[in-house]
Amino acid sequence: MIYTLTLNPSVDYIMELDSFQKGGLNRSSAESAFPGGKGINVSRVLHKLNVDSVALGFAGGHTGEYIKQFLNQEDIRTEFVEVKEPSRINVKVKADDETEINGSGPSITEEHIRELLDQISSLTEDDMIVLAGSIPGSVPKTFYQEIATQCEKQGTKVIIDAEKKLIEPVLSLKPFLIKPNHHELGEMFDVEIDSIEKAVHYGKKLKDTGVENVMVSMAEKGALLLTEDDVFYSSVPKGELKSSVGAGDSTVAGFLAGLSRGWSVKDSFRLGTSAGSATAYSIGLCSSEHVERLFEDIQITNI
After folding, report:
1. Residue 242: its pLDDT value, please?
2. Which of 93, 99, 92, 147 has the alpha carbon at shortest distance from 123?
3. Among residues 127, 230, 249, 297, which one is catalytic?
4. Beta pairing class for 30-36 and 10-16
5. What share of the chain has pLDDT > 90, as a percent?
6. Cα 281-32-130 angle, rounded to 5 deg
7. What is the average pLDDT value for the chain, to the nearest integer?
């Protein structure tokens, strides 16, 4: 089973306006709300690709119930630890440009943390867990490291897509997959990565720390996957960029979906790239039909 972890999920409330007047009365022309969070995005895209997952994390109050009900209606299994304070609301105002106002989220106690760790302790070598996104202020910054340590003992594969300070303590624990974009990879080595050659060089340095696989997304320049034996390069299919939100999460989901189907690493990477591109060319997350169309246009080469 694939498990996804979203420590600070949200209800993303989107308001679309023809124009925005600061300090005045504004009326929306359209509104929508859906669960937000990188791990949740991975679960939602996995479901679109007909792969089951279990969404873990912390959820509370009426907003937490909304998140769980929304995912359950999409036939996504949830096992969130219930907390007392409500899950956060993130407001996104789309007008001439986009303004975001993100909530801070509920306080997480030691009891909540222990309950989540107990859940993770039941995972086996046949399971994977995706650690995605930021850590709430009330949770120790070493929490991903603690989870990865537990998973290493159990043989559970760890996938991590997070910022530098959360990734670095996990590297020595030999995670299955790390997925930085080229900016994040550059930050890890204090360099600017502006070419495929540089991305390959520093991707190999990252892999030398003990990571099994490194995937580097490079926007319109494509993507790389460094495995034990190969370095694969993926082209980017043609399309109009509409939103990069969720594209990286979709790439992870597509890759894991391919592996869960028994596909080769190369074809799984191709599916990941097509899912990430389909989301980037959409408002919201990708559809399975869009992923299938783009899949045929993607070329994977061994470099």
Report:
1. 83
2. 147
3. 249
4. antiparallel
5. 77
6. 60
7. 93
**Spatial distance between the Cα atoms of 240 and 43, rounded to a whole number of angstroms:** 25
Least confident of 42-46, 81-85, 206-210, 258-262: 206-210
Question: How far is residue 67's CA from residue 186's CA, in Å, rounded to a whole number?
Answer: 34
pLDDT the model gives residue 226? 97
| Position 151 pLDDT exceeds 90 | yes
Burial class (CB in 10 A: 0-12, 13-18, 19+), 30: exposed
Q: What is the CA radius of gyration of the chain?
A: 19
Q: Looking at residue 284, what is its pLDDT?
A: 85
Query: By C-alpha distance, which of 270, 259, 205 is closest to 232?
Result: 270
Q: What is the mean pLDDT of residues 50-72?
A: 97
Three state DSSP letters for the chain: CEEEEECCCEEEEEEECCCCCCCCCCCCCEEEEEEECHHHHHHHHHHHCCCCEEEEEEEEHHHHHHHHHHHHHCCCEECCEEECCCCEEEEEEECCCEEEEECCCCCCCHHHHHHHHHHHHCCCCCCEEEEECCCCCCCCCCHHHHHHHHHHHHCCEEEEECCHHHHHHHHHHCCCEECCEHHHHHHHHCCCCCCHHHHHHHHHHHHCCCCCEEEEECHHHCEEEECCCCEEEECCCCCCCCCCCCHHHHHHHHHHHHHHCCCCHHHHHHHHHHHHHHHHCCCCCCCHHHHHHHHCCCCEEEC
190 is a catalytic site residue: no
Kindly state the average pLDDT of the residues 33-41: 94
Q: How far apart are CA 30 and CA 8, in angstroms?
A: 26
pTM above 0.85, yes or no: yes
